[in-house]
Amino acid sequence: MKNIKDYDLKELKEELTNIGEKPFRAEQIFKWLYQEKVKTFDEMTNLSLDLREKLKQNYTMCNFNILKKQKSKDGTIKYLFDVLDTNAIETVLMSYHHGYSICLSSQIGCKMGCKFCASTGINFERNLTSGEIVEQILAVEQDTGIRISNVVFMGIGEPLDNYENVVNAIHIINNQKGLNIGARHISVSTSGLVPKIYQLAEENIQCTLSISLHATNNEKRSSMMPVNQAYPIETLMQACKDYMEKTHRRISFEYALAKESNDHLADAKELVKLLKGMLCHVNLIPINKIENGSFSKSSNESIMKFRDYLNDHGIVATIRRELGSDIEAACGQLRRKNLKK
């Protein structure tokens, strides 16, 4: 049976029509799922008993179980969720002055093979459905009682490699009758799948696109990110420029600084040259050490010099606040180690 959370509102109206119900029932169900956050069809008390029974016969309601919950000294919480098919995923809740952000996984495993990421070298199992993506938000809000205000697709997996499900999940998250989180509070990260960047530009979704760049020339980037062999920097940067022209949205470039690798002043100069004239922001990330990883974190001095050089030469750059590293919940540390039940 299909998970009822896999449908956006338009699709759910069509589904209910197909089983002989009025389309307005979809809005009632959406309210129960995403505003009241119920876990069973029986709790949808303004629906008739017959309709509730029909829903139980035709659909499941994906409710994740918490296998493990770890809390960092900085307040970050990492969840290990049972996705109900012998697999599990990690999701991270972070607290900021502007509210709570959640880092969502989009796949069970990852195909990209980035050398600085803990998901590298493990088997890719499958894509998450749109309902399983949204369920991460629901499960965390149900567990904590808080309201999540910002969503980042930066957990396990390459979001644009699971394009249809991620975009559908965004529609549910953004819908005023769904989770009602503004599109500009949703960020989608990609390692650089160029055809999907062009496809996303046509969606007219006002979310933020984050590009995992991490190097300024093809030789260095390919050594860190195999995807660069398929879509080299020249092709990627053209796609970014076309995306900005189409959407009028600023792009965020993620740049993880690795000691004696991509953190030299020469790299900063190349980055300025690469991004000159673009409507963008650079998010500098102190790279996190991972098991069997060959990269180590840059010194604080190198990181600040890199940031200052960018800012002094017209590129807005900030250093990402490091959260959850003591529980391996920081950028690049999510993995599937011990996730298989």
Can you give a write-up of this model?
The protein is 33% helix and 20% strand. It has 341 residues and is of the alpha/beta class. It is elongated. It has a ten-stranded mixed β-sheet, with helices on one face. A two-stranded parallel ribbon has the order 1-2. A two-stranded antiparallel ribbon has the order 7-8. α10 (300-312) links the parallel β13 (280-286) and β14 (317-319).
Described by the principal axes of the CA atoms, the overall outline is: elongated
Secondary structural class: alpha/beta
Largest sheet: 10 strands, mixed
- Order the strands across the largest sheet as they lie in space: 3-4-5-6-9-10-11-12-13-14
How do the helices and strands follow one another from N- to C-terminus? EHHHEEEEEEEHEHEHEHHEHEHE
Instruction: Provide mean pLDDT, rounded.
Output: 91
Low-confidence stretches: 332-341
